[in-house]
Amino acid sequence: MTVEFRLLGDLEARLDGRRIDMGHARQRCVLVALLVDVNRPVPADHLIDRVWADRPPYRARNALSAYLSRLRHLMVGADDVRIAREPGGYVLSVDPLAVDLHLFRHLVAQARAADRPGPAAALFDEALELWRGEAFTSLDTPWFSDLRMSLEAERLAVTLDRNDVALLAGRHSELLGELSAAVRSHPLDERFAGQLMLAQYRSGRQADALVTYQQVRHRLLDELGADPSAPLRQVHQQILSGDDGAARSVDAPPPAREPGPDASEPARLGPDRARSNLPRRVTTFVGRDQEALQAAAALRDGPLVTLTGVGGVGKSRLAVEVAARRHARFPDGVWLCELAPLVDGGAVSHAVAAALGVKQQHGLTIEQTVIEYLRVRHLLLIVDNCEHVLDAAAKLLDQVVHQCPDVALLATSREPLGVEGERVLPVPPLPAEAATVLFADRARANRPDFRLDREAVGAVAEICRRLDGLPLAIEIAAARMRAMNAAELAGRLDGGRLVARGPRGTPPRHQSLAAAIDWSYRLLSEPEKALFARLSVFAGGFDLDGVHGVCAEPGTTGDDTLDLLTGLVDKSMVAPVNSAPRSRYRVLETLRAYGRERLREAGLEAGLSRRHARYFTQLAEQAARAMHGADEREWVERALPDYDNLRAAFERAAADRDADLALRLVTSLPELAHLRVGYESADWAERALDLADPDHPLFAAAVGSAARGAWNRGEFARARSLAATAGGRIPGRGTGRVAYPGDVLADVALYEGDVDAALRHYDAEVLRARRDDDPIRLVWTLYYVAVCHAVRRASQRGLPAAQESLEVAEKTANPTALSMASYALGLVLKKTDPDRALALFDEAGELAASVRNFWWHGTALMEAAATRAVHADPAGAARAFIEVLDHWDRVGDWSQQGINLRYVVRLLVRLGADDDAVVLHHALVAAGRPSPLDAARLDVLARGLGEQRFAAAALYGAGLSGAAAVRQARASLRRHAVGRA
Known about the structure:
The chain is mostly helical and 981 residues long. Helix content is 61%, strand content 6%.
């Protein structure tokens, strides 16, 4: 088999044209570190330094040996590749020309030795075409970053040499576009400038060539205080005199410059939705290119960069821009977590988990869940607005820095976090020119006829000066251009009537921002002022119903509220948020803080906060009832965006020790939050129990909610203890499906192997649900009866319950009920009627996904894949199991992932992937999980593989962590999915 290694872009390895998955980032680091020095020994200490820098893991040599062993395994079949240990270190032996980096250098050497410009240019072109982007973009340790910078410089030098010989070969017109772009990317590189001037001149554009010279000359004077070099002046003189016979464009080497990691990473107008949650850029990015370069360089050099500065200076916008430009460097994406909606630091880890789409894992705290998820990923995480939860944010990010080596962190805060390894970059106000450009751009957005002409430019400069170049203040001021011209606006600021001074000692920038906000606030009508201040009570965003329900004056209508809200949007005091199907809004955090101060001054903050808590408790109650009907999807879309407000409502109730309100809220959230966000609401339920009287009618449902959270986390003893506090009481009709204490006890028994106890409970609950005429409860209990029979391998006995469950669910038209019932029926039919079972599993998964129910969606995906593995296309099953692995990995449910890995082991045996099956079997056993391979089957596999090979696979598997076992399964499935497609 022929082998190719590609380093000039993201790392690729191909056997006979088929791409090979090279595994974890560290394993890829080892491969590249050997390929760079191909056919030469690299000492183990050097490899460890290249791969881990100053933070090698415990027993780094063992880890290195394991990576090398896996690389050898991946190269089985490539006879011309060998990885061996020699006296001088480890050597990867292969034809150097099979590695694109060495082929590039070979072609460049041939080009430089060529005696004619035409063939030399062709060889240079062939070499440059090998580059597919930045070299090994997904690897980012210091050694690789330095090597990448060196290779970029090498690539640049080759490009310059190619341009020279191509110009000599007469390709001036062909090079014009590329040289123009190069001068824009490298505005101080005189050699590029000279080449462009020659190309322009020889294409009949002498005037353009002279303009290029003047532009470069001015840039050199402005930025370096230097005149053009002698070679560039010589090109200029040749063009003036009509003599273009110089053999080369500019012989001077390119000047020293800061590496530009962003030159090959243009800012994106919107995020890659598959690997990012960055907001779409909807306005121009002005005046921060230097800061963006500095932040990008700091991210390359350290694990955590914190952008600091006064509120309104543009820290958040800069962070998002930097992330968008560096998106391609992070194979697991770039993710934004906004902390501004949080009331206190207790929810920081939950907010980070929600931003990443991660659910709390069984047996782990939410902090541990986040760390375990990030530990094996290579991504960039932005943590925005840390200042009001500084201690909690710093504690979590410190753990990420020390335990997640491939995660880069970009934080924004008004003060440093104080975390080891933190690089602090103060974000200054905009300089005068950039501030003027920003004002003009935003003014045109509000008033399309605005022109920055001679009359306006002085007034705009004065406005920006008085606002100290703070972007937020400038944008607020520019919004006023709908009502006046620039001179009038400057006059009002100059007259001092709209300049509000901050407290004595407040920094001038704070005073400037306060002046801009206070000025905009004073321009509002009295009803608009009242509404603006009241909007500060919301955490995160809000919709029109929320505004009217929480903030409206008695006797006003929804239309009245809409008119006021529209006025605030028009005056840039409230920002609309692109969302569907309902419009939502938000108040910038700086403006929200100002509004909160107005509420405190008026003595309204506590009362309005309680009104907010009552409104969102009522909303949660409405949603909980609707979650049992046909409108489940509508209410998920309606209520889920207000999760931050629900958290704030609970914190208000807890602070007031309002047990009734707290119980009403937590017993309304299992349907909305528990199955769609994570297990945080179960913690709220536990806290509410400390406030509550056990005789309260909602006490049992709150116990069920708390106990279910413990069960989800795998804390079975805790779940039993909590459930017992209900004293055998059963929650009332309409309680959330997962919030029955008795069900939690039965589920603990089921998972611990006591199927009979679980079946007895659910048989009794079926009778109770029929007596109560509660169809949602009946679907749930019949579903579990069917599951219990399936677990006992008596599926036919569960068939009547599953069929009845589906009949009842169809009458409710409730998507989750229909999903559960379809799943139950598929489960009992999958051995006798696999085609129908597959259709039922697919339908169950689609129904659950349609209402964002991650739990039932995952179980349906898993059973469908398992059924396909036995009764349908094995390659299709392999692809399906990859999706299931990713699903449970993101949800963070190891109990379900363990079941999934059992199914994967069975499939690998069927596919003949005996090595991989043995590896995963031993990984499951080492984790204390059952495996589908019994002793007899293992004996068969051992004989087939041979004793030594079997022992090696067993030893390797026993050493895998849960996350590593998932990666191993994913890699194996991909090979078979591709190989059999």
